[in-house]
Every structure is written in structure tokens, then in C-alpha cells.
Amino acid sequence: MQILERDICILGAGPGGASAALQFDNIGLPCTLVDKAMFPRDKICGDALSGKVSSILNRIDPNIIGGFQKEKQLQVDSWGIRFTAPNLKSLDVPFKLNFNRDEDSAPGFISKRLDFDNYLVEQVKKRKQIEFFEGTEMTDFEEHKDYIILTSKDKSLSIKTKILLVADGAHSRFARHHAGIEMELNHHSAGLRAYYKGVKQMDENNFIELIFLKELLPGYFWIFPLPNGHANVGLGMLSKTVSKKRLNLKQIMMELIETHPYLKHRFEDAEMVDKIRGYGLPLGSKKRSISGNRYMLLGDAGSLIDPFSGEGIGNALYCGFYAANHAKKCFDANNFSADFMKGYDKDIQRVMGQELSLSRKMQLALRFPWLFNLVVNVAARNRRLSETLTAMFMDMNLREELVKPSFYFKLIFNK
Ligand SMILES: Cc1cc2nc3c(=O)[nH]c(=O)nc-3n(C[C@H](O)[C@H](O)[C@H](O)COP(=O)(O)OP(=O)(O)OC[C@H]3O[C@@H](n4cnc5c(N)ncnc54)[C@H](O)[C@@H]3O)c2cc1C
User: Fold this and answer.
1) Which residue owns the Cα nearest ligand 1 atom 10?
2) How many domains does the chain have?
3) Which protein residue's CA is at the shortest distance from atom 39 of ligand 1?
4) Same domain for 172 and 278?
């Protein structure tokens, strides 16, 4: 067995782990990154990259997004969201008002995770200070006061590290068995994804489509455009509902595609180019402790997916950035105690707390589909409201309005 002693180890090279490694390199700290997969590797996902992804990657290295945008076969630009309410009326909400595709840079992208994650890993491989082990699954963890030891499943590698950044995703063994993060059905969604080609009526500005069918509430169906006329198609639903109603999501997804009046004509000539695959989404709808003595949990390992939109890539990237910066503070102060690590929890709470709690309220509001119908009906004829909805993407205080009864009172009484 190869036994290594390292200052910093990152477990998982998805968006959370890769961004942490890149940020360590920026601040001059060598680190070791380990992933069980060989890249490129697939990750079941909707593949939508929001404006958050560009903003945090630009803080880590402005060349990353610039380079990615040039790779036209890897991604499509996205300019907004088409929300379809339970009454089947649709509302287009652009990410930017009066956008100009020739002059503005795209606020969002859609890219298969096979490509996006590999692109990030390629950036990692260019950095000399990052030691990267691929195809190495770490399954055993020993916690000691002054270090943590990780050992691979095949016992070929053991790493003794002063600090561990845990970014091994939704099924994180460390998060469950060492950090006490339980899978809670009420704070967890089940998601399915299939790749299609030939879906009709895709938007010309690549708006992603969130379709809130009454059959799926509080979950939703999605259709996201991809390069080469392909589309990422899927659905997500709260695991509590799936378990309580004993639902077979794959069967529901196929039935909707084949028979639902909003979907069937769009899929009549479409072909599935993959099979339906499922994966869990640990939601950030509950505040949890995401650090402890000598470790921090990043992205899905820390259950930080947005409970309304299902977005987790941007949050995982932010975690990587803040976890690396916090680790630097630990080395400067020579303090790796659980107490000192709380600084990382505070950073994450400051950056994501308001948005996650608002999204939880919006997710709960989906129990009242008529509210959703009302917003879409009014916004379709009221330009000021539809512009306000666009502004809500960026302005969290404005988004707070969406969960206040007064907002709906004004809509009903046209105040
Ligand atoms: C169906 C579905 C749809 C989604 N749609 C979207 C979307 O459209 N947009 C969005 O922003 N988010 C979406 N998400 C959420 C998003 O996929 C995650 O939030 C994101 O991947 C989290 O990144 P991460 O780095 O924390 O973990 P991951 O991306 O899961 O990366 C974890 C890495 O750890 C590695 N690993 C795991 N275990 C070990 C081990 N024992 N040893 C070594 N390595 C290990 C894995 O190989 C993997 O590379 C969706 C999720 C699902 C399930």
C-alpha cells in the first residue's frame, strides 16, 4: 500500500472538489484531490449552469468560463427560464431584460456534466500544485485529533491529512457516518434524467423549461436544450411524496411523455438516446452543521441543493471557493478545531442562507398551485410584473416578496 502524508486532501473532483483544488492553487497551497471515477465521467443532472456558476468561476479564474464559452460543441447559451404553471400557461422570464445575444455574454449555459466536469478537471490537471488521483475510491476514514486517514477500497492508497474537504456528492459516506448528516425524506428529492433528440418546440433562445404539472407538484418536469439538437429531459419530486404514495417515477415520466396534452405532441418524433437514470438530490431546506474537527462538507455532501430549483452546481462551486479560503485561515492560525471550522459554516450561511430559506418557502408554496397560476396569468399581461420577476433572479430582497401574502393580495386586487 502507498501511504502518503499531506496537508490538504479533497475527496471528490466534481464541481465542489475541483473548484476547491483550483482555489488552493490560486492561494499557493498544494493539495491532493482524489476521485473514484476516471474522467470524463457522467453525473446524473439537469445539466443547467446558472449565472452563479459563471460568477464564482470568474472569481476563481476568469479564463475558465471564457474558454468554456468558446467550446461550442460542449455547451449552449441560455437566456432565461420558461415557467409552465399547473394551468399549462407558460411565462418566459429572461435572465436579463432586453438582452442582445450578439453583444451580451450569456448569463447561463447548459452542458452535459460529462463535458462540463471534464472541462473543470482539465483545468485542475494543468495546475502543478494539484496532485490528482483518478479511479481511486476512498471508503475508510479514521478521525484523529491531529489528522484524518483515508484509505482506498482496494487498500492500494492511504492518505494521512491535516485537513479534509469532503466533496464526494449526494451519497457521501463520510457525511453520513462521520458528520452525522442523515438522509431525510422531507429534505431530499428523487430525480430522473434521460437524453433525447428531436423534441419539438424548443425555444430559440435556449430558455430552460420548468414545467409544473399538477400531477407532479411539488416537483416538476424539465426540458433543457443541449448542443446538436439534444435535450436533457427529467423530473424531480420530494422523496417524502415518492415514498408516501409509493410512486414509480420512471413509469410516471414515460406516461407523461406519451400521454400528457402538454408533452405528447412535443415528443411524438423524439427519440431517447440514453436510458432513464435516477439519482438523489440532498436539499438545503434545513440548516445543518457542515464542518467538524479537521473537515468541511462541500456541495451535495453538505446537502446544499436549492429546494425550489434543484440547482446545486453553483452552490458546490461556491463551497469549494470558501472552503479553500477557510482552510488557509486554519493553517495561518494553526487551528483545525471544530470550533474554528464554524467560520466556514458562517461563510456558507452568509452566501447561500437567504436564498436557500426563500427557496424552501417557495417549494412549500407549491402546495397552493392556484398561486402559481395567478402569477403566470397576471404576468402574461402585466409588463411591470414580468420585469420584476426577471429582477428577482439577481435581487434576493425582491425575491422575498414572492413568499409574502401581500404580494398575492396586490396581484388579486391589482394594487
Ligand atoms: C436528476 C438531477 C438533476 C439536477 N439538475 C441540476 C441542474 O440542472 N443544475 C444544477 O445546478 N444542479 C442540478 N442538480 C444538482 C447537481 O447535480 C449537484 O448539486 C452537483 O453535482 C453537486 O456537485 P458536488 O461536487 O457536490 O458533487 P458531485 O458532482 O456528485 O461530485 C462528487 C464526486 O465525488 C466522487 N466520489 C464519490 N464518492 C467517492 C469516493 N468514495 N471516493 C472518491 N471519490 C468519490 C464522484 O465520482 C464525483 O466525481 C441535479 C441533480 C440531480 C440528481
Assistant:
1) 311
2) 3
3) 168
4) no
